[in-house]
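Q: Structure tokens for this one, please.
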Amino acid sequence: MTQHTTPAGNAAEVFGAFLKLGLTSFGGPIAHLGYFRDELVTRRKWLDDRAYADLVALCQFLPGPASSQLGFALGMMRAGWSGALAAFVAFTLPSALIMLAFAFGAASLSGPVGTGALNGLKIVAVAIIAQAVWGMAQNLCPDRERAAIAVGAVAMLTVLPGAFGMVGAIVLGGLAGLVLGRGAGASGGAPLATSVSRGIAIGALVGFALLLALLPLLAGQGPVLALIDSYYRAGSLVFGGGHVVLPLLQAETVATGQISADEFLAGYGAAQAVPGPLFTFAAYLGALGPAPNGIAGGALALAAIFVPGFLLLIGVLPYWERFRTMARAQSLMQGANAAVVGILGAALYSPVFTSAVGDMRDFTLALACFVLLMAWKAPPWVVVIVAALGGVGLAFIP
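A: Here is the predicted structure, written as tokens:
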């Protein structure tokens, strides 16, 4: 049977922690893993690196917004169902409101100040992810075999980049760990707490499949169902979330004539400048699209794109918990966790470093942010502000 544990916190605590993350987590889904780890593993000690990496591996396997699924699971571990809801709302609300504001005519960042601040926010993601790679590598790749698995994951992503490469790297890393056979049950770290029973899990999986199958058949019954179908399908078919969802959203909106390509690209640019999950881009698109639009359309699109990923997560969580407590499963997870480190390392180079660091001045700012995090132990939100101001300063240097 699935093991249930008494939540160690409450929904208000979870809401406060994730509201802070929702206001300060710049850099996209990969960078969010670094923010989450720093705040919840290192500072608040809600769980250890092993349990955290297990959840990261699970969310990378599942379609949907990986960082939001991770936050949902972390909130549930801390405070049950109310904690899961609190984590989702608090992490999503800031960026969703900002994207709705852009949809209603808020001016995009422009000029040297705006573009410089945006550049600084991209640069700080380099430092955040570098810190995460360093910390997780120390805990999850302590021997040469697991270090080799991490390097192998990077090598695989050079051959097969994207979501399928990430899933493949985790699968092969798990198989390599299974061959090594060093697992010893649930040794090290507390077991993952879950409020999900098997009955609820099965119901969630059935609900996911039924909605995926039936919504296309019902889409012709009205604009509300058509909107829900478009965004539910996009959320169902994306591994890793984040930027991977953009081609699907473009196919559902621009290709169908719901919004123009210029509107789509303007919203995408704005989404890079705000914290929180990139999936809140759906709120912008829903607000601009055909009726129902405005706040109602944005809210429906936002809910529809997140629901499938959460249904899958709920459906898998009870079995994942039992799976990871088996000795052979622990061996598999050790290899998978090492692969996650490699995936983070690959992401640190591309697209984060390659898109954020254009010259030696950018590299200097990234290095300064990394030193602030590692040596000065500055909070991430402080480093984010420093990076934005530094980016503005660099914009005025000829």
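A few notes: Residues 7-398 form one domain. DSSP finds 16 helices and no strands in the chain.
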